[in-house]
Every structure is written in structure tokens, then in C-alpha cells.
């Protein structure tokens, strides 16, 4: 007898039902529902590795966030209950993120993509949101408001102090390096994402800002 197929279920055998001692008998197919439990291993911006458990009962109920730089990979795994068939992986948009046969996700660009694990017709889906890793800078004088640094350089007045606000995605500890300390003085403030900068004399130098592996260079002119 040919085994019947039911999408999302595994055939486990036949059940025979008879009403007393009669010649007629009903035979019913028995099934076990296939359930896929997903997990995703990936590094968080604070440097700690995280394991996200996604209980996928044929629906998408969770999401993770990755970035275009550094935190741009995740390893998915699937635990299947009710089937011994292999798991197949797919991405809804490979231009945003691809997934290998083993469940390794690699980011390509910003966007949103669904990573799907299928087995015997059952599926579990996890949404992956890809954000752009970047460092935004804004300068503020004593009597002025913050002004975004849109280019690669900024002009400062000699002996005047400025606040330099660092807006990083993902956020983290701000590390800086001054090319020529005789031209530019940089110090920290009580706010972890704000630096105090001061042009000491005429000249050009470079200020490098680094946040959690993401780097941005800014030329400072006097």
C-alpha cells in the first residue's frame, strides 16, 4: 500500500477500526505533525555572543538584527521534531542576505529578509533586519547648535573649544586617535558619546573615530 502524503506531517502508520464482528473495516492514516525549532548564533554589538531561540511552529514569530559591517553574519540551526528528512534553507531576498546549505547567513546590504527552514512541507521563518553600520559626527561651538559633519573635513577656530557628538550604529565605546597632537587637542566629557576638541595652532590634521570596529576619519583644518 502506498504511503499517503500530508504536507507538514510525517506518516506513522495505519489505524484499523471495526464496528463489531463485521466484514467492513475503516483504515485511517496516522500522522505526526512536523515542528521546526530554530536558533540563531550571532555576535552582539557589545561583543557578547548571543543565541536567539525561535520556536517556529510554521509561523514567523521572531527577528534578529545584523549590520553591514562586522556584525554581518549569523549561524542558524534547526531542530526538527516529527521527521528525519533534511532541512532546506532559503532566503527571501539574496541581494540583502544569503543563506548556505548549513544555515550560515551572510549580509549583503541593508534591508529586511526572511530566512526560512523547510522540512517535509513544514517551515519556520525568522526575519533578519540588516542596518547600515555607520558613524555620524556633529560639531557644536560654545554659542551654536550642533551641526552635522557631512563631508570629510571640518574647520575650527584657533583656541576655541567645540563639542564633537558621535552617533554610531551600532552604538559602543568611542575610541579616538589624533594625527598631530600639537595641532588638535581631544578629551573626553561626562557624556560617553561626546568629545571636546580644540585647535591649538594653525595647520591640518586627522582625527580618527572608532566605535566597535567601525571607523571614520575626519580632517580638521584651522
Walkthrough of the structure:
- With 222 residues, this protein is mostly beta strands.
- It is built from no helices and 20 strands.
- The strands form five sheets. The chain has a five-stranded antiparallel β-sheet, with no helix packed on it. A five-stranded antiparallel β-sheet has the order 13-12-15-18-17, with no helix packed on it.
- The radius of gyration is 29 Å and the shape is rod-shaped.
- The relative contact order is 0.15.
Topology (elements, then pairings):
Layout: E1 9-18, E2 25-33, E3 35-43, E4 49-56, E5 60-67, E6 73-81, E7 88-91, E8 97-99, E9 104-107, E10 111-119, E11 122-131, E12 134-140, E13 147-148, E14 153-155, E15 161-169, E16 174-178, E17 184-188, E18 194-199, E19 204-211, E20 214-221
Parallel strand pairs: 5-11, 14-20
Antiparallel strand pairs: 1-2, 3-4, 3-6, 6-9, 7-10, 8-9, 10-11, 12-13, 12-15, 15-18, 16-19, 17-18, 19-20
Per the principal axes of the C-alpha atoms, what is the gross shape? rod-shaped
Into which percentage range does the β-strand content fall?
Answer: over 45%
Which stretches of 5+ consecutive residues score pLDDT under 50?
none
Mean pLDDT: 84
Adjacency order of strands in the biggest sheet: 4-3-6-9-8
Give a quick account of the main beta sheet: strands, pairing sense, barrel closure. Answer: 5 strands, antiparallel
Distance between the termini: 87 Å
How many helices in DSSP terms? 0
Please identify the structural class as seen in this structure: mainly beta
Number of DSSP strand runs: 20
Relative helix content = under 10%
How much is the radius of gyration in Å? 29 Å
Seen as an oligomer or otherwise, the chain set is single chain
Element-by-element helix/strand order: EEEEEEEEEEEEEEEEEEEE
